[in-house]
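Re: weekly structure request thread

Next one in the queue (340 aa):
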Amino acid sequence: MTTIKDIAKLAKVSPATVSNALNPNLARVVAPKTRRRIKAIAADLGYQPVHHQAKQPARSDCVLITTPPLEDEIEDQYWHHIRMGIYEGASQQNVNIQNVFRIQSGIYPKMVADYDGVIILGSLTESAIRQLKGYNSNIVVIDDVNTSCSFVDTIGTDLYSLTLEALKLIQKQANGPIAFIGGKRLEYHLDGSAEATTDDLRTKAYRDWLAVNDQPAILKLTSWDTEAGLSAINELLDETAMPIGGIVVASDPIAIGVVKGLLEKQITPGKDLPLISFDNIGVASYLTPAITSFSLPKEVLGITAINQVCDLIANKRQWVSRTTIPGYLGTGETYPIQVS
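Done, posted below.
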């Protein structure tokens, strides 16, 4: 009988990657090319998944605490798709998202005490999370900018390493310094007030890359929307004495504005300089040129958060889990540079 290990050996990937590729709920986390190869090998070997009779789990009542401002959720599909994943996972696991608290309105720690579990979307201060954990130990944080938070379950994407990969790719083609345009991230207190702006993992990676490569910073941190991207690239072009050789942008909504600004200056991304972004949202692929962007496992982040909070509820474990779900570079026209 063919096993997952057999398929992994032939596909030259890990058994976990094979398991994800063959699982309809997690297949999207695997790069399409790898996923197709694994499925073809599985079919050739006549692999038959083992089906277990699943018992319907008891319903769990959870609360969702969101930190992105409402306008960010509307403008940036990243947050919207994570929310979709949370609700999809909840329906699969018999979890009821009984309430949604938006941090800007402020919450009292005791408000989470009567729920089976708590899911936090975005960044709270360490002090805020500790206060919540005092009333409910079953907490999972999605996309927390504070990577040193070691006392609570976290789920995120490998944004730091993906940014370094983007910089490495662009460096091979750049005829000049590499710029970075990113967004500002806030950590919130429970009263709804925001801590000082902190660097996103993509910004941290760029700063670290600068130190290693001895390049001066060509950096703009702005809001996470298209108009902010347009303003940011115009300011960078005005402020930078020498031509920019390449650009990394932290998200597609910003990148759409960046591309617009470049085209207005008669600079074509993918022809005159390479550009790589993040999120791989649908509208970015329909632009001319189409933006080359890292695909992030947005829905999978939400689904995984539900799975982890259910594990906390069921098993009362005393150790924390830090889950990193990989992204991959999609196709587009802004990288690599198209040779005429």
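The two ends are 52 Å apart (CA to CA). The first helix runs from residue 4 to 11.
Next request, please.
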